[in-house]
Amino acid sequence: MARDASRGALIVTAWYAANIGVLLLNKYILSVYGFKFPVFMTLCHMCMCSVLSATAREFKIVPKQFIRTRRHYGKVAVLAMTFALSVLGGNVSLRYIPVSFNQALGATTPFFTAIFAYLMLHKKESTATYMTLVPVVGGIALATWGEPSFNFFGFMACLVGVCCRALKSVLQGWLLSPVGEKEAEKLSHSSENKLDSMSLLYYMSPVAIMTLGVFTLIMEPNAISAFYEAAELDPWFIAILLGNCFVAYLVNLTNFLVTAHVGALTLQVLGNAKGVVCTVVSIMLFRNPVTFRGIVGYTVTMIGVWLYSSSKRKSARLANALMENAKTGV
């Protein structure tokens, strides 16, 4: 039990560090550095994920699992496209809105996750839990109304990314299984086997690359020439981009691992705490303006997140107590 708790804490810590790092690097490259091609940059991220995932499998760092049915591969393909769109929406929005506003909008993800979990998995939460999501959304509405750097295109791109992120989390929790050789061997004989985090990333990457490649050709036809030009002007650009891609790989890996350990909705709640840190750091680094109304709105949202977490803990304790009573016959 203690070992599982320590492992979970380490995974969550790594997830926090990777998420904050890639977000700030993305903003730096897109806005400060001036490489205004978020779709191409996201494509580079997925290429790195594909290479590192294949390497990990080839050198047996992780157990190999295989997709044995078309139906299962279809699920993974849908997840891959949803994942690509979630990352794409967030990266595109960083060109037009500050990190703080991006994170404020991202705080509404639990709301959309609850909706998708209900529609797709018929998973119901208590009335109290659903009520706690009202201040989450209301606070963001207030923050949006008072945002001095509001940009409609950036707002919509971020909102699409948030919806896709919520859908991805629900699908991800559905497909993931614990990591381990025994579990992998056991699941590999199932007709509808689930995948561990690394195998899922391995199979997702090619589909995501194709999806992002199409978007790059349509939306950013000059991206490759701009990449070569930036590399010639500043040799450090390649190193910065490669480092950004590597951290993006760590984000994906730790994101899958956290989902496998804590579930989809809890992952989104943890993400809101991460959003507070990102907001503070981004304001300090990038000096983007904030208003009192925006601060109040984001505070209301975080209160809603805290109420939501408390409600989830109470529901979990109640469920555990009912299970114990059922076992003892009380």
From TrEMBL:
Primary localisation category: membrane
Topology versus the membrane: Multi-pass membrane protein
Sugar phosphate transporter domain segment(s): 9-309
Subcellular location: Membrane
Segments passing through the bilayer: 9-29, 35-55, 76-97, 103-121, 200-218, 238-258, 265-286, 292-309
Any Pfam family matching the protein: TPT
Keywords for this protein: Membrane, Transmembrane, Transmembrane helix
InterPro entries: EmrE-like (IPR037185), Sugar_P_trans_dom (IPR004853), TPT_transporter (IPR050186)
GO cellular component: membrane
Name by which UniProt lists this protein: Triose-phosphate transporter domain
